[in-house]
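Q: I'm building a small set of examples for a reading group on sequence design. Run inverse folding on the following structure and report the sequence directly after it, with nothing in between.
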């Protein structure tokens, strides 16, 4: 998929080195088609890393995408230069009048807090409500998945006795769903979180469907409103070295962190990661874009409601 991104976004050069097809703004203007408009609310601390991870996955179908990066106005990220935010991100208030074919909301390092105590929770609630009226399908990742389930359906989150950290086996509860097309009987995805949601709580809500679970990691994918919402508790978008970077970071901080499960060759950090979730990640994102965004969104984007 050619992804139309700003010409100077740092992810462009990183992904070109991987032979990922990235289309700059100048070339995109010469294609006589309507691209899918995807907005990303990036709440992760390392913005450039997350941008690169998402563009890598969004570039894997023949559809053209126009990507808009969004931030919450009045909240200043601590780990990304202000110049980067000013160049590539727009405040929600500046784009709230727009409609989008799809939206991705990332995880955030705030899961130790009750939702209502998160500094930007009121703005998140406003964005969640706006998305229901202005986006064809939303894809919520990790903390955002738990936050969305809580906001829309009052599904609580629960603290885990230890961090869910590693790469785990999953299965599809209904393999015939379009979002699951091409999935193996057993597939893998990374998790990195301190809280969880329970399948029993989700089963009580008729508007929700449990799409995928793991015997070790619990609930993985939940679908809402017949595909207008996907809540994904793991990090299928992670690059091969991301869990290693998190592990080494926490070790340097002196935290009591276990080696990520099923991640390193022979569970030995010195032997490097054993990557086995990339094919699932590509299918998950391409299925979402094809079956729940492209096939469902109106040609006239202003008709989204």
């Amino acid at each position: 998929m050619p992804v139309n991104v700003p010409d100077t976004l740092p992810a462009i050069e990183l992904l070109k080195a991987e032979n990922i097809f990235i289309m700059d703004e100048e070339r995109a203007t010469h294609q006589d088609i309507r691209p899918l408009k995807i907005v990303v609310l990036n709440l992760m601390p390392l913005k450039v890393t997350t941008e690169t991870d998402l563009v890598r996955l969004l570039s894997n179908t023949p559809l053209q995408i126009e990507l808009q990066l969004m931030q919450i106005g009045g909240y200043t990220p601590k780990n990304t230069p202000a110049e980067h935010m000013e160049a590539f991100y727009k405040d929600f208030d500046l784009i709230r009048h727009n409609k989008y074919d799809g939206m991705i909301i990332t995880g955030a390092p705030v899961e130790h807090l009750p939702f209502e105590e998160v500094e930007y929770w009121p703005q998140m609630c406003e964005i969640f409500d706006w998305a229901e009226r202005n986006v064809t399908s939303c894809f919520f990742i990790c903390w955002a998945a738990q936050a969305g389930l809580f906001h829309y359906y009052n599904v609580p989150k629960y603290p885990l006795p230890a961090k869910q950290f590693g790469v785990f086996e999953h299965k599809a509860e209904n393999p015939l769903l379009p979002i699951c097309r091409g999935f193996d009987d057993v597939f893998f995805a990374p998790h990195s979180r301190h809280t969880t949601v329970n399948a029993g709580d989700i089963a009580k809500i008729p508007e929700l469907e449990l799409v995928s679970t793991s015997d070790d990691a619990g609930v993985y994918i939940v679908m809402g409103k017949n595909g207008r919402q996907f809540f994904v508790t793991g990090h299928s978008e992670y690059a091969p070295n991301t869990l290693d970077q998190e592990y080494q970071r926490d070790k340097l901080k002196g935290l009591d962190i276990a080696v990520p499960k099923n991640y390193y060759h022979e569970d030995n950090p010195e032997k490097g990661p054993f990557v086995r979730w990339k094919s699932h990640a590509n299918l998950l994102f391409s299925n979402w874009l094809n079956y729940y965004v492209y096939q469902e969104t109106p040609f006239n984007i202003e008709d989204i409601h």
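The chain is about 30% helix and 25% strand.
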